[in-house]
Specification:
Helices cover 36% and strands 23% of the residues. The strands form 4 sheets. The chain has a 7-stranded parallel sheet with strand order 5-6-7-8-9-10-11. The chain has a 4-stranded antiparallel sheet with strand order 3-2-1-16, sandwiched between helices. Strands 4-14-13 form a 3-stranded antiparallel sheet, with no helix packed on it. With 371 residues, it is α/β, with parallel strands linked by helices. The chain contains 13 helices and 16 strands. The protein has 2 domains: 3-116 and 355-370, Enolase-like, N-terminal domain (Enolase-like, domain 1), CATH 3.30.390; 123-343, Enolase-like C-terminal domain (TIM Barrel, Alpha-Beta Barrel), CATH 3.20.20.120. This is o-succinylbenzoate synthase.
């Protein structure tokens, strides 16, 4: 297979409901869609789901656009390859920029699966025909507003709710939700907002009493010792997200017992190949995994569904329906969750078609290069 054309589309879509984490609030998203086309005219799609601002990661939409155009496109354009791992090796010398790499990785896997007449899930080695989905809820202006959001998503059939927390918005919101939903699969995500202090440890001790499925990324990304100390003090499993970017990070997590659940984000880890390797390593260590999300458009969401079909994704993943985030997605049909379950597509590639007219209508900048 030879890549003859690469097109980039930076697309802006409004969110149905604004979303606030410990660092910022957002009401729309700008992601970059990657389209690779081979010499036979067959296309594959990926999504660079980097945030616009450097709060979750140092990457932004602007840095991704630069790295994609200056380094990734020249690496793949004209490249001849047989499997996605071979194509991914063309950018192995680039340090960091995992989100950018992930967009090209997904496009490579999509076109490869299509060329083989396989679904992306099957090409990755997935075994499930459906994936249980959870939803992530941001920090709301009031407890009543939070409860309204919880009720809406529970009513839509989602079996797991993740609550964003931050200093000052933690124990009480969780208690209120738990009191209203005593049997709900509930977990919290701090996005590394807490210092390694006795005051923070007391917050997590109180949260430990709320029968949570996990406490996700309480401390700073690189602070594995702090997470290990916390895990020794509480019964609730600590889940790491931002801490695990490379397989070496996962090995550190395992060695130190710094977490007992892993959030695998395809974007954070640099693509589907890296995500699959993390899945395998966690499986061998007895660590359950789930797929986290970055409010992806349908292209990235479809890739998340596919990777979530692997056997060790045993916890609900952030692959909720498109309508949770966007009035109109960039794929047709949109991703649909019925009673909290998303069917894994069995059609070629990601299993959806990109609405190219809608993409172009919402693109704020585009680039196209051919050999």
């Amino acid at each position: 297979m030879r890549i003859a054309r690469v097109a980039l589309f930076e697309v802006s879509l409004p969110l149905v409901h604004s979303f606030e984490t410990s660092s910022h609030r957002k009401s729309s998203l700008q992601h970059i869609l990657v389209q690779v086309t081979d010499a036979d005219g067959r296309s594959g799609w990926g999504e660079i789901a980097s945030p616009s601002d450097p709060f979750y990661t140092s990457e932004t939409t602007d840095t991704a656009w630069l790295i994609a155009n200056r380094y990734l496109v020249p690496a793949v354009l004209g490249a001849t390859w047989e499997d996605p791992a071979e194509l991914e090796s063309t950018w192995s010398g680039i340090r960091g920029h995992e989100f950018t790499k992930a967009g090209f990785s997904a496009a490579a896997w999509d076109i490869h699966a299509r060329s083989q007449g396989l679904s992306l899930a099957a090409d990755l080695g997935g075994t499930r025909t459906e994936v249980v989905a959870g939803v992530s809820l941001g920090i709301e202006p009031s407890l009543d507003a939070l409860l309204t959001q919880v009720e809406t998503q529970v009513g839509a059939g989602y079996p797991r709710i993740k609550l964003k927390i931050a200093p000052g918005w933690d124990v009480e919101p969780v208690r209120v939700v738990r009191n209203h939903h005593p049997h709900l699969d509930l977990h919290v995500d701090a996005n590394g907002a807490y210092p390694d202090s006795e005051e923070a440890a007391e917050v997590f001790r109180q949260l430990d009493e709320q029968s949570l499925t996990m406490i996700e990324q309480p401390y700073a990304p690189r602070d594995f010792p702090a997470h290990a100390r916390l895990q020794r003090r509480i019964q609730t499993p600590v889940c790491l997200d931002e801490s695990v970017v490379e397989l070496a990070d996962l090995r550190t997590m395992i060695e130190l017992d710094a977490g007992r659940v892993l959030n695998i984000k395809v974007s954070r880890m640099g693509g589907l190949l890296a995500a699959r390797r993390a899945h395998d390593l966690a499986r061998d260590a007895g660590i359950p995994v789930w797929c986290g999300g970055m409010h992806e458009f349908g292209v990235g969401r479809a890739a998340n569904v596919a990777i979530s079909s692997l056997p060790n994704f045993t916890l609900p993943s952030d692959v909720s329906g498109s309508d949770k985030y966007y009035e109109r997605d960039v794929i047709v049909p949109p991703v649909v969750a019925e009673n909290g379950v998303v069917q894994v597509p069995d059609g070629p590639g990601i299993g959806y078609e990109v609405d190219i007219d809608w993409v172009r209508q919402n693109a704020v900048r585009t680039a196209e290069l051919t050999v």
